[in-house]
Structures are given as structure tokens and as C-alpha cells.
């Protein structure tokens, strides 16, 4: 059996013919996402709340008082409720879309932060190892004070030996003088 025939017989693989029969509308997902974010951002402002409040006041005033003989939505304000329901049914998915886009951005930023933290941690460990090796190397290097103390010790040892030789020389000279006398 050929590979394409096996694929067609599988139930979890859609047929190519079906894909071509159904045309789905295409749109720019990024442009729509940007629109959703701007809309969600605007809905969260005091300006939006002010506009909505003014709209409701004008709507109720025109329908209760009946200025200019307009009474298109009497007291229970069913048309106003329908308007708000429609607005909410569109606003909720747009807000969710904006939140999903923000979450995706936050995820990317968090991943970049994790990578930067990992690099910084590796750099700190490297520097700590370098500082430790420098301390060990400096510990093996003779310092100025150590050299001075060693030189003083050597100088005092040389002075002591010179004194001993001088004294042994004097003792030898004394014996030579005694022996010749």
C-alpha cells in the first residue's frame, strides 16, 4: 500500500479535498491583535467611562422626558440593555485576546530574563574562580614584608657567622701569639 493511501485511510488526517471546499476568511492577526489591545486599553480608561456615562444619561433623558418627541426605548430600556450586552459580548473576547498577547510578550521577556540571569550567574562563577586562583597565586608569591624579614634573618645570620669567624680568628691569633712566645 502506498504512503498517500495509508494517510488517507487514517481518520485523524483530514482529506485535501475538504480543505479546498471550505474557504475561511483570512485576516492579519497582528493588526487585529493590535486593535484588540488598543480597544482593551481604551476601555480601561476614565475617558471611556465618562463617554459611557454621558451616553446612558442622554439615552435615559431622551427616552424618559421625551425631548423632541423621541421615545424609541421606553422605561425598561430593553434596547439599551441589548446595546450593552452586544458591547460586552465583543469586549470580553477582545480583552482576552489582548491579555493573551500580553502574556506571550511577558513569557518572552521572562525567558530573556532567565537567559540573562543564567549568563550573569555563569559570569559570577567564572569571576569567583578567577579571584580564588589569584588569591592562591598571590599566596605563593613572596610579599615585600616577607622578603624583608627573610633578608633581615639572613643578614643577622651572616653577621653572627662573621662574628664567629672574627672571634675564631682572634682565638687563632691569640694561640699563634702564645705559641711563638
UniProtKB/TrEMBL annotation:
Per the record, the domain of life is Bacteria
According to the record, the residues making up region (Disordered) are 162-181
Which residue windows are transmembrane per the record? 48-72, 78-98
> Transport as a keyword?
no
State if Membrane is listed as a keyword.
yes
Alphabetized, the UniProt keywords read: Membrane, Transmembrane, Transmembrane helix
User: What InterPro entries has UniProt attached to this entry?
Assistant: DUF1003 (IPR010406)
Renumbered to this chain, the Acidic residues biased-composition regions fall at 171-181
Stated name of the protein: DUF1003 domain-containing protein
